[in-house]
Write a structure and sequence with these properties.
Layout: E1 2-11, E2 14-24, E3 29-33, H1 40-47, E4 55-60, E5 72-75, H2 87-97, H3 103-116, H4 132-145, E6 150-154, H5 162-177, E7 181-185, H6 189-195, E8 198-201
Parallel strand pairs: 3-7, 3-8, 5-6, 6-7
Antiparallel strand pairs: 1-2, 1-4
Helix pairs in contact: 2-3, 2-4, 3-4
The structure holds adenosine-5'-diphosphate and magnesium ion (MG).
Adenosine-5'-diphosphate binds near residues 16 and 41.
């Protein structure tokens, strides 16, 4: 379980996160809603170690089998693909660089995920040759390749048309059903009601 306890974060004089308490279980989909500027992105950046917080704790509690589970991935709102790498290398590069996978191993994992996310035929494309939805799926593939215990999505439906929204919803459900804890920031009430196990209203 991922436990957030009394988390506080300010930028200068401005307190953005105030005593945030939230648990996320593995296999669960928690959606974070709240007005623009309330600190949603800052919260998940704190969870992912991309931002320091001022006080409080982010703890990874072991499951009942005693397995430590402390890895977390992020699919950012702008996807942050490596612009100078093609689709395959966007997925394989972190596997080799961070996880020390051998090239063939990384390529095999990437091929599986390309298939899973319906990116077949786009392996050699660069980011500028992909649609918004395709870029997002590459970012998701890249995050899933690292096999994190938790994964955060920052507004995954904001760049997508209505039809693709449900594809992302189904994908999130599939990811959670495989045992990952999923944290999703969304403005979309209907999407949250449809796919969340729990909704956390920030700044309420
Ligand atoms: N690196 C930063 N430095 C200064 N202020 C920031 C920084 N990142 C975010 N903020 C401010 O913190 C507040 C919350 O931002 P953010 O977490 O992006 O909100 P949300 O995702 O809910 O729209 C905003 O007022 C924003 O301007
Ligand atoms: Mg945001």
């Amino acid at each position: 379980m991922l436990r957030i306890e009394n988390l506080n974060k300010s930028f200068g004089e401005k307190q953005v996160l105030k005593d945030i308490n939230l648990d996320i279980n593995k296999g669960e989909i928690v959606m974070i809603t709240g007005e623009s500027g309330v600190g949603k992105t800052t919260l998940i950046r704190c969870l992912c170690g991309l931002e320091n917080y001022d006080s409080g704790r982010v703890e990874y509690l072991n499951d009942d089998k005693g397995n430590g589970d402390n890895s977390i991935g992020l699919v950012s709102q702008s996807f942050d693909l490596f612009p100078h790498f093609n689709v395959m290398k966007n997925i394989t590069y972190p596997l080799m660089k961070v996880k020390n996978n051998k090239k063939t191993e990384a390529i095999n994992k990437a091929k599986d995920l390309v298939g899973f996310l319906g990116l077949n035929g786009l392996e050699d494309n660069y980011a500028y040759q992909l649609s918004g939805g395709q870029k997002q799926r590459v970012a998701i593939a890249r995050a899933l390749a690292m096999e994190p215990n938790y994964i955060c999505f920052d507004e995954p439906t904001s760049a997508l048309d209505y039809k693709l929204r449900d594809n992302v919803g189904q994908l999130i459900k599939t990811v959670a059903s495989r045992g990952m804890g999923v944290i999703v920031i969304t403005h979309d009430r209907e999407f949250a009601n449809k796919y969340a196990n729990r909704i956390f209203e920030l700044g309420a």
